[in-house]
Amino acid sequence: MTRPCNKRSAAATTTSINGSGKVKRPKEQRGHQDKYTEEASSSSGKGKRVGEAETHSLYDLLGVSSDATPREITAAYRRRALVCHPDKVRQRERTKIEGEDGGKGMKVKYDDSAQVLSVEEATKHFQRLQAAYAVLSDPKKRERYDRTGETGEDLLEGKSYEEAYRYYREKFPEVTQEAIDQFKAKYLNSEEEKEDILDFVNKFRGDLTLFFDFIPLSEPSDWKRYKSILSLLLEEKKVKRTAALEETIRSFDMIAEKFTKKTKKEEKEAAKGGKKKMDTSSLALAILGNMSKREEAGNRFLSSLEEKYGKKKTRK
User: Fold this and answer.
1) How many other CB atoms are there within 10 angstroms of residue 153's CB atom?
2) Average pLDDT value over all residues in the chain
């Protein structure tokens, strides 16, 4: 699958849709874009940027092949919308600034070639996901796009985030516990999950410190299973055996414990009603991490996004 922001190119540009609605199509479909490091470039003039690279199509933006079924397209869109929301990006930015492992003084090493999305860029990228989905989810629009490379409309160009968000809610009324559990059942232990873990290890050069911040639906209590997957990747020589990987895989249980403490602290701060209010980053972690209050968080998740970002108008 991100799989956002998620998957697979670290350096990404965008596909342009001009005023007539023409899209530069690729001769061959490429792999998934990197959901952790996609660059959502802003549009200029009447041109509309909705993809990830000059030669990438709407299919690449969603991370699916050109022969994907409607069900696969919907699943890919929903997954990226859940994973690559602005607050999740803000959580990563905050964690990157802290960048230390439990007081041990070990700094997290990032791939310098990657460009991490800002909250503003993530908001724009979320709109582009909707723009691509609006075409590919409609049989007639998709057929025309496949045949001519044209979308036939400007989609969400010039729309505010609130309008784009409303469109999303019309497609998916709310993020329910049932929907999350259904996706989780398909994702855990899948090839897609293994691919996400492989991408993470390569992106962070083997440093697992931020594993639970980035891997979708990861739970610290499941650290032994993740460690087995990581060990298998090493045995199969799919990842490079770096000093950082060997060190952090040995202390992987401590990384899981630290993440658990951080999440519990955020929950306590919210319960006490203190100065530090539980933001949607924490809510997202609760949803994706199977916390005790996941059901309530699931109902509030998208509403919180609307409250935080709906009043902000998109710059023209």
Assistant:
1) 13
2) 67
> At residue 11, does pLDDT exceed 80?
no
CA distance 160 to 141: 23
109: confidence class by pLDDT, cuts 50, 70, 90: very low
| pLDDT for 297 beyond 50 | no
DSSP 83-137: HT-HHHHHHHHHHHHH-BSTTS--BPPP-TT--PPPHHHHHHHHHHHHHHHHHHT
Q: Is the pLDDT of residue 214 over 80?
A: yes
Into which CATH architecture does domain 16-99+115-171 fall?
Answer: Orthogonal Bundle (1.10)
Q: Which of residues 244 and 289 earns the better pLDDT score?
A: 244
> How far apart (Å, rounded) are the C-alpha atoms in residues 141 and 143?
5
Contact (CB, 8 A) for 219 and 290:
yes
Contact (Cβ atoms closer than 8 angstroms) between residue 203 and residue 109: no
Express each pLDDT in 228-277 by its tens digit: 999 999 999 999 999 999 999 999 999 999 999 988 888 888 777 654 44
pTM (2 decimals)?
Answer: 0.40
- Assigned token pair, 85: 């929301």
77, amino acid identity: Y
The answer to whether 142 and 136 are in contact (CB under 8 A) is yes
* Whole-number Å distance between alpha carbons of 190 and 183: 11
CA-closest candidate to residue 34, choices 61, 15, 59: 61
Residue boundaries of the structural domains of the chain: 16-99+115-171, 187-309
Distance CA 301, CA 285 (A): 10
**At 17, phi and psi to the nearest 5?**
-115, 115
Backbone angles phi, psi at 12, to 5 degrees: -125, 140
First to last CA, the chain: 32
State which amino acid sits at residue 16.
Answer: S
